[in-house]
Design goal:
membrane; transmembrane; two-stranded antiparallel sheet; Tim23-like; 183 residues; 3% strand; protein transmembrane transporter activity; 65% helix; transmembrane helix; mainly alpha
Length: 183
């Protein structure tokens, strides 16, 4: 490799090249592994998230998704309900209030659903000793039934069936995606 020298106050210094001793082409340095890297071997042996990680993941994802969807629909509703005689400040206030109210409401509702689902799924994994489609389907069924239990047994049964089917479809879709779509 060519070395570059520079003079500074009667002293010769060489510019530092961090790749000079590697004896590999520089483009090979950036071929990063696609498999997960773990610091400890016991982390690599885990097949699923812990109950705390599950709780944070499902609750946070559900709340954030609900808040974004609710804020978007509330903003659009506020834009539609704006009256022609309103000032710009009044229109802006109506849009912001509508978006904030709908975002909070849907975010909180979906966050509670995520919290219940995470607790039930982690409990099923603990009691059954394995992580599979059955755990997610039962957790979805239980989540729907618990969420709508106050509306009566018929409503709880329908919501439970919808929750179980949705959870099973989501897990089956995720497994199919992993199998057939190279990432």
């Amino acid at each position: 490799m060519a070395e570059s020298w520079s003079k500074s106050k009667d002293q010769k210094t060489r510019l530092y090249n961090p790749y000079q001793d590697l004896n590999v082409p520089i483009h090979n340095l950036y071929n990063l592994p696609t498999s997960p890297e773990h610091l400890f071997p016991e982390e690599a042996a885990r097949t699923h998230r812990s109950w705390g990680e599950n709780l944070q993941y499902y609750t946070g994802t559900a709340y954030l998704s609900g808040a974004l969807i609710g804020a978007t629909t509330g903003t659009l509703r506020g834009l539609r309900e704006a009256e022609s005689g309103d000032s710009i400040k009044l229109r802006l206030n109506r849009v912001l209030n509508s978006g904030g109210q709908a975002g909070r409401s849907l975010g909180n509702s979906l966050g509670v659903l995520g919290l219940i689902f995470a607790g039930l799924e982690s409990g099923m994994i603990h009691f059954r000793g394995r992580d599979d489609l059955v755990n997610s389907a039962v957790a979805g069924l239980g989540t729907g039934a618990l969420y709508r239990a106050a509306a009566g047994p018929r409503s709880a049964a329908i919501a439970g069936a919808i929750g179980g089917i949705a959870a099973a479809a989501a897990v089956a879709g995720k497994q199919a995606l992993k199998r057939y779509v190279p990432i």
